[in-house]
Amino acid sequence: MKSSATHLLLIESDPADAKVIKDALHDDSAAFVVEWVKSLAEALEYLANNPIEVVLLDLALPDGKGLGAFDKVIAAAPDALILVLSSASDDELRRAAMERGAHDYFAKGHIDAHWLPRALNYILERKESRSALSESEERFQVMSDASPLGIFLSDAQGDCIYTNAAYHTISGQSLAETLGTNWKAAIHPDDREEAVKEWHAAVNKREPFLAEVRFVRSDNTMVWTRLNAAAINNNANQKAQGYVQIVEDISDRKAMETILRVSEDALFDQQERAQVTLNSIGDAVLTTNLGGKISYLNRTAETMTGWPLKEALGLSLEEVFTVIDADSRQTPPNPVRRALKANKTVKLPSNCLLVRRDGTEIPIEDSIAPIRNRLGAISGAVIVFHDVSEARAMAKKILHMAQHDVLTGLANRTLLTERLTRALGLAKRKQKKIGLLFIDIDNFKHINDSRGHAVGDRLLQIIARRLESVVRITDTVCRQGGDEFVVLLTEIEHSEDAAHVAEKMIAAFAAPQKIHEQSIAVTLSIGISLYPKDGSDVDALFQRADNAMYRAKVCGRNNYQFYSSGVDTPLITTADSGSRPQANTSS
């Protein structure tokens, strides 16, 4: 509900129909201010001189019929919420108007004085929820553009749906140029085949994708990049709905690796210059002889390993460069031996940790290559490694943001859908029930408008924490958007279990909430659908819980309703009843 009345323009040539609508929207709350005009010409004149929020448009006016009239009205009031009035048989006309921008429609002759104001309020609240979601997406873009690392988001086929400012700098392309392109398009043709092969291997093994490749920029210059990608999954079989790829410019490090591949004789002649260069770069550099004994550490390597060069010289690689797998805690095969045996550059397995001399651990990525003398004979190996804490934290943060609501920290619709799909599979095997609760905060729009958005945001955070407190750790609380929450109850035994949770949620807000010294009364309208009774798939359970919630609204709010396909007027279940509410659970 708004703190001020909603201005509505009724464009209707039939006085009888106009009276029905005006009477339906006239009540003591003065929620709607209705202006009535009888023709398209009057409507266009009024819209040219007056701001309006909602337009009810008859598509059969004497001076304007059908889509032609609709096009003129939407051009005159592009920001208004437009709903069309038509006869019950005009299905094609209604669908065409919806495709052109109408928000909804009402069939003339079937307008109910009880339902019309409630339906309008519901549509207005949904529009505001979509606006809030758009604002959340804008905040995400600002945060990602502040990252120094390039971000490339793609769909399941690898085609771009978003890139940030750092990626544009690295690739030399604008957002418009990257949208719709495949992730591999920017890779140098000589590197592309191997990168794609490694990508498919990572996807098949459900592992992170790591690669170092050259990008061909829009001006045909080249830049070396490190790619770190992970899947964004949305269902129980881990099928990816998209990918997030972190792109880092490593041209400077690659230049250093080129220097390090020269022969030992050349390194000796240019020792002072190489020493300055190696100590000025951010990557750690470590070299060994053919026996695997330490022969050099630059300053970054000294810092990361905790070993000064003087103490490390002559020690075995394993003593100074101690690496373990982050998950298994096992030591991977000696990387120097692998590089020397393969006679090529190799890498440590992904997800490795460097154990420093003091026992602390750092996530790293590296490359190990043979060192050749001027005759081409192998004389040792060089390891170039760096701390990837920031890159991994950024990838984790982006993945978390893609699956969680920014304001409350709750799971979003994508993550809830994934968990619900997984829960359906388990429930089917174990012959268990699942409950889905669709929750709407009663009159939240009025609270938000009258108390301010800061109070409204704080109230949403309090509600999120309160909902989490009344469910099990195995259940999921999701903020779907605006003032709508969804709760997944996994593996319940009886429908009464879901009812009990709904009762606890309503009871949790029996006392007014205190925010900034303001007392705010909060009530909930809750709709419940059950698996397998009400549906066996995600979409069916969502829709039926939503329908049940809307019935709870109509029944006076501050109550819960089970979905019922055969009951037109549901039994009200409120927190104010003297005994436990008896919800309709028979169908």
What characteristics describe this protein?
587 residues, alpha+beta, Rossmann fold, Beta-Lactamase, 4 domains, 6-stranded antiparallel beta sheet, 5-stranded parallel beta sheet, 40% helix, disordered C terminus
Outline the secondary-structure elements.
Layout: E1 6-11, H1 15-24, E2 32-37, H2 40-49, E3 54-58, E4 60-61, E5 64-65, H3 66-76, E6 81-86, H4 91-99, E7 104-107, H5 115-145, E8 150-155, E9 160-163, H6 165-171, H7 175-178, H8 189-205, E10 209-216, E11 222-233, E12 240-249, H9 251-260, H10 264-269, H11 271-280, E13 284-289, E14 294-297, H12 299-305, H13 309-312, H14 317-320, E15 322-325, H15 335-342, E16 352-355, E17 361-372, E18 378-387, H16 389-403, H17 413-430, E19 433-441, H18 444-451, H19 453-469, E20 476-481, E21 484-492, H20 495-507, E22 513-515, E23 518-520, E24 524-531, H21 538-554, E25 559-562
Helix pairs in contact: 2-3, 18-19
Account of the 3D structure:
The chain is of the alpha+beta class. The protein has four domains: 6-132, Rossmann fold; 147-249, PAS domain (Beta-Lactamase, 2-Layer Sandwich), CATH 3.30.450; 261-393, Beta-Lactamase; 404-562, Reverse transcriptase/Diguanylate cyclase domain (Alpha-Beta Plaits, 2-Layer Sandwich). It has a six-stranded antiparallel β-sheet. Strands 2-1-3-6-7 form a five-stranded parallel β-sheet, with helices on both faces. Strands 9-8-12-11-10 form a five-stranded antiparallel β-sheet, sandwiched between helices. The two termini are 32 Å apart. The model is unreliable at 568-587 (pLDDT under 50).
